[in-house]
Here is the input.
Amino acid sequence: MPVRRIRMLMAWVGLALAPAALAAQTTPVVPQTGTMALEGTMKTFYRGVNKLVVTTVDGMDHVYQFTKDLVVHGGKESGEKALEGMHEGAMVVIHYTIETGEPTVREIDRVSDAGFEVTEARVVRIERGRKLITVRFGDGRTETFQLTERAAAEAPAELETAHTGDTRVVIYFKDEKGQKVVHYFKKAS
Here is the structure.
């Protein structure tokens, strides 16, 4: 077979395989659903357009839409009035949904201003239905915390199936009427 014909055949094979190669490199976009949580620091908020800016732990600024019925745990006021007292750099946990392509904040936990405590322990059991998490501390004692409805819903599925005592978590909780209530927790890095 002449060299020219071999080159022509290779070119046709390359052209035929190119769309498959491009498709294999493209990562499909998987839409996120449900409520997600993100920790960061408050940067600023814009009342007129119902937007707030939060700097996440990775150093990125994120802009979020917030609703008029915004719930702010740890604020003296409700809704957007609770945001007025927040200072730049305040530690927060943002609970948001993505429904129309834009992240919308439904709830904010004012971690640094509202008496939230942060602790680290190993997961013993998560009971999403009963809204409970049982953890074991480094000194060997175990404790069961109540989860808020949102924290129970946001609990990563892999933590429920993890081997007992293997997975470390960071818990953000608050004493509410004598009961320790977890508003947010995440896998420790």
Summary: The beta strands are 35-46, 51-56, 61-73, 91-98, 103-110, 117-127, 132-136, 142-147, 168-176, 179-187. The radius of gyration is 24 Å. Residues 20-32 have pLDDT under 50 and may be disordered. The chain is about 20% helix and 45% strand.
